[in-house]
Write a structure and sequence with these properties.
This is Argininosuccinate lyase. There is one protein chain. The chain folds into four domains: about 35 residues, no CATH class; about 80 residues, Fumarase C, Chain B, domain 1, CATH 1.10.275; about 240 residues, Fumarase/aspartase (Central domain) (Fumarase C, Chain A, domain 2, Up-down Bundle); about 45 residues, Orthogonal Bundle (Ribonucleotide Reductase Protein R1, domain 1). Helix content is about 65%, strand content about 5%. It is built from 17 helices and six strands. The chain is elongated. The termini are far apart.
């Protein structure tokens, strides 16, 4: 057997060599908080780091991210990939992190972490050491972010549905309250035929009911779990995707792993439903803005829901419906943006898809605040129903009814139309109503 006597120099060299090795990689950028940094020899350019990061806006997903991670580690323990003690250690630390984030203990600006997923993982490792490094076992950020987005949109979709229901109930109340109150109905913004004010509100009740139906239909398609799809091809680990899906309240799993990580149809659909809701809100607000003018005088704004002018003391401005009308544009824009982002992407995941979030988050926030404002605004309005009735009974709005009475007596429709038109011309010339003209005749 060949042996050699170790000198003090040999011992020091053996001890120092690994330290030199580590130092070289620290300088080279390997020893960073980048969880993917093992194969890189340079630190990420600071500009690229900032350009690449999404933590400043995707931190809103922290609750859903922690929920998904807690179920994920429970699954790892269930499948004997982690011990029960390891699972409990990670689970409890994640709950501590959730509490700390809610308490505002962390700032999401000017941090090195790329996104909320890595932010939480780094905090976890700081809390429980190497055990925290086991959190991401059997998972990719590709299926992780897809899960977070589905959980987030599901939560917000339920809130939007609740707010829509409140609006529909409000419109139903207004429909019942004003079913006998006449007002002019309009086409081309010209007086056309008398209608009930209640029928007007019922029309919008129908529109928002369809929106609610579309939202509930969206929920059925989006409520499937992508977790376990990995980066794109699943995992060799014995994961139980169905158990995870059930634990998170999903109807099932997305069976194709390529589809699971690359699909953003559910984002586009929600933005589309939101755009239609905003379109209906905008139309409703346009009418109310017109009705609040002195020229119409159909509606009086409540002081609590109107503003004044910094110059003109006589002004009472309908800022609430104007802002809702204006905000429809940004929701439309976000829908077009995500459609454009997704239109040419190859399978499976691409970094382009990071651009789905800011528009989605703003769309959700916009639709929520608009729905929160419109219901109390409607409830605050005072309708000038006597004036509405007067307007409905003047201006020859009964012309169509008179025409149809002639048809019922056997006159051909076109002849009746021509005859009533001639009577209207005569009534205008004599400055009287059709009824007055016909009674006089």
């Amino acid at each position: 057997m060949y042996t050699t006597k170790r000198t003090l120099k040999d011992s020091l060299t053996s001890f120092l060599y690994p330290l030199k090795f580590i130092a070289r990689y620290i300088r080279g950028g390997i020893m960073t908080n980048k969880t993917w940094g093992g194969r890189f020899k340079k630190s990420l350019d600071s500009g690229v780091n900032q350009f690449n990061a999404s933590l400043s806006f995707d931190h809103v997903l922290f609750d859903q991210d922690i929920n998904g991670s807690q179920v994920h580690v429970k699954q790892l323990a269930k499948q004997k990939i982690l011990t029960e003690a390891e699972c409990q250690g990670i689970y409890s630390a994640l709950e501590e992190i959730r509490t700390e984030i809610k308490q505002g203990q962390y700032s999401f600006n000017e941090r090195d972490e790329e996104d909320i997923h890595m932010f939480i993982e780094q905090l976890l490792i700081q809390k429980i050491g190497d055990l925290g490094k086991k959190l991401h076992t059997g998972r990719s950020r590709n299926d992780q972010v897809a899960l977070d987005l589905r959980l987030y949109t599901r939560d917000k979709g339920c809130l939007i549905n609740e707010l829509l229901t409140r609006l529909i109930v409000c419109l139903d109340d207004l429909t019942s309250k004003h079913q006998q109150d006449l007002m002019p109905g309009y086409t081309h913004l010209q007086q056309a035929q008398p209608v009930a004010l209640g029928a007007y509100f019922n029309a919008y009740q129908c529109m928002f009911s369809r929106d609610k139906s579309r939202l509930e239909d969206w929920f059925k398609r989006m409520n499937y779990s992508p977790l376990g799809a990995g980066a794109l091809a699943g995992s060799t680990l014995p994961l139980d995707r169905e158990w995870v899906a059930e634990s998170l309240g999903f109807a099932g799993i997305i069976p194709n792993t390529l589809d699971a990580v690359s699909d953003r149809d559910f984002v586009i659909e929600l933005c589309s439903v939101a755009a239609m809701i905003m379109m209906h809100l905008s139309r409703l607000c346009e009418d109310l803005i017109l009705w609040s003018t002195q020229e119409f005088n159909f509606v009086t704004l409540d002081d609590a829901f109107a503003t004044g002018s910094s110059l003109m003391p006589n002004k009472k401005n309908p800022d609430v419906p104007e802002l809702i009308r204006g905000k429809s544009g940004r929701v439309y824009g976000h829908l077009m943006a995500i459609l454009t982002v997704m239109k040419g992407l190859p399978l499976a995941y691409n970094k382009d898809m990071q651009e789905d979030k800011e528009g989605l988050f703003d769309t959700i926030n916009t639709i929520i605040v608009c729905l929160q404002m419109i219901t109390p605004f409607l409830q605050s309005l005072t309708f000038n129903t006597p004036l509405m009735r007067t307007k409905a009974q003047s201006g020859y709005l009964d012309a169509t009814a008179i025409l149809e009475s002639l048809v019922m007596k056997g006159m051909p429709f076109r002849d009746a139309h021509h005859q009533v038109g001639a009577w209207i011309a005569e009534a205008i010339e004599k400055q009287c109503s059709l009824n007055e003209l016909l009674k006089g005749g």
